[in-house]
Write a structure and sequence with these properties.
Elements lengths: L2 H21 L6 H20 L8 H24 L5 H18 L10 H12 L7 H27 L4 H28 L3 H24 L4 H7 L3 H13 L5 H24 L2 H6 L12
Helix pairs in contact: 1-8, 1-10, 2-3, 2-7, 2-8, 3-6, 3-7, 4-5, 4-6, 4-9, 4-10, 4-11, 5-11, 6-8, 9-11
Length: 295
C-alpha cells in the first residue's frame, strides 16, 4: 500500500477508536480509558514482538522511553479533550502540532503561507465568543504539542529499531506511567463496570496498536514534513465519525475553522511535493539498522 493509503487507514482507525472511547465516558472516565488503551496495546504488542531486552542499546532505550512518555501525555490530553469538545474539533486542534512541525521544517519562505489559514482557523475556534470549552481548547493544544513530539520521536524510534521492539518498549513505558494514574483517578469505575475492559481492549486496537504500527511503517517511507501534512485528513474524518457514531453536530463557525486548517495542510502537501529536491529526498531516506542511510 502507498503512504497516503496507509495514512488514511491510520486516521480512520484512530478516530473510530476515539468515538468508541467517548461513547463509554458515561461509564468510566477519560483517564481510565487512556490507561487501558496503552496497557492493552502494550501487552498485545509485547506478546507478538517478544523484545529481547539484552540487545537494546542505551541510545535505543532513551528514544523508546522518550516516546513512551510522550504517548502517555498525548493519550491523556486527547482523551480529556474529547470529553469536552466534539471529536472533529479536538482532532483539528491536535493536527496543529504536526502542521506546525511541517512548517518549521520547511526550507522555503513560501511554505509559511500555509500558516495563515491555519492561524485564522485557530482564532475562529478559540475566540472569546466561541461556544467551545476553554479547558477543552487548552487540552487540545496540549495534545497538539505532544503529537508533534510523537511524530519526531516515532520516526527516530523507527529508524533505530529494525523491528517492532522500539514501539513495544515505548508503549510499555507509556503504560507504566499512565496506568497508575488511571487506577487512582477512576479505578472504582472499572471495578463497578468490568465490561468496560472489553471497550478498553477495542479502543487499544483501534486507536493505539493499529495507528501506531501504521505510523511507524509510514515514517520509515516518508519524511516528517510530508507525514505531518498528510494528517490534514484527520479533522474531516473525525467530524464524519463523530456525526455518524455519536451524532455530534458542528456549528458553521467550527466547520469553517476546520476547513481552513485542512486547507493549510493540503497547501503544505502540494508545496512539499513540489519543493522537495534530490538533496531533500536523500536526507529523508530511511536509515538501515546499522545507522547508515540506504542508497
Amino acid at each position: 500500500m502507498t503512504a497516503p493509503a496507509l495514512m488514511l487507514a491510520q486516521i480512520v482507525s484512530l478516530q473510530a477508536g476515539s468515538a468508541v472511547a467517548k461513547g463509554a465516558y458515561a461509564t468510566v472516565g477519560p483517564a481510565a480509558l487512556a490507561g487501558m488503551r496503552l496497557a492493552f496495546a502494550a501487552a498485545i504488542l509485547w506478546a507478538l514482538a517478544r523484545p529481547r531486552l539484552g540487545k537494546v542499546t542505551a541510545v535505543q532505550w532513551r528514544a523508546a522511553i522518550s516516546l513512551g512518555l510522550v504517548l502517555a501525555a498525548m493519550n491523556l490530553a486527547y482523551f480529556q479533550a474529547i470529553s469536552k469538545l466534539p471529536i472533529g474539533v479536538a482532532a483539528t486542534l491536535e493536527l496543529l502540532g504536526p502542521l506546525t512541525l511541517s512548517i518549521a521544517l520547511s526550507r522555503r519562505l513560501e511554505h509559511l503561507a500555509v500558516a495563515v489559514p491555519a492561524l485564522v482557523g485557530v482564532l475562529l475556534l478559540a475566540s472569546p465568543d466561541s461556544s467551545l470549552s476553554v479547558a477543552g481548547l487548552l487540552l487540545g493544544g496540549a495534545a497538539a504539542v505532544c503529537r508533534a513530539g510523537y511524530v519526531v520521536l516515532s520516526r527516530r524510534v523507527g529508524r533505530l529499531f529494525p523491528d517492532w521492539t522500539g514501539l513495544t518498549l515505548a508503549l510499555a513505558c507509556g503504560a507504566c506511567v499512565l496506568t497508575p494514574i488511571a487506577v487512582v483517578t477512576d479505578g472504582g469505575g472499572i471495578q463497578a463496570h468490568p465490561a468496560v475492559l472489553g471497550t478498553g481492549l477495542l479502543v487499544a486496537l483501534l486507536s493505539s496498536l493499529i495507528p501506531y504500527a501504521l505510523d511507524m511503517t509510514v515514517l520509515r517511507r516518508i519524511d516528517m514534513r510530508t507525514f505531518g501534512v498528510l494528517l490534514a485528513l484527520s479533522p474531516a474524518v473525525a467530524g464524519a465519525v463523530g456525526f455518524i457514531l455519536l451524532h455530534e453536530q458542528l456549528a458553521a463557525r467550527q466547520l469553517c475553522a476546520m476547513a481552513l486548517i485542512v486547507l493549510a495542510g493540503a497547501g503544505a502537501v502540494r508545496r512539499a511535493a513540489r519543493g522537495a529536491g534530490p538533496a531533500d529526498r536523500r536526507r529523508d531516506r530511511p536509515a538501515r539498522a546499522d545507522g547508515r542511510c540506504n542508497g
